[in-house]
Write the structure tokens for this entry.
Amino acid sequence: MGKAEWGKEKEGFYAEIGRLSTQLGWLKKKLEECLSRDERVALIEWKREELAVSTQAELLSLNRPSL
């Protein structure tokens, strides 16, 4: 892969990261607005190995130590 191709691919990666970041922010805001704390706590998957509880708590706008 040439330098120009790599630069173009890199720009695509940054664009995708930006798009996903925007979508994640929107989703977190909607979850917090539309679901009560208890409903968001109920979404935690305690035994899910591929997504740590601390990450799930962050995504659901929950304070991990309070869980």
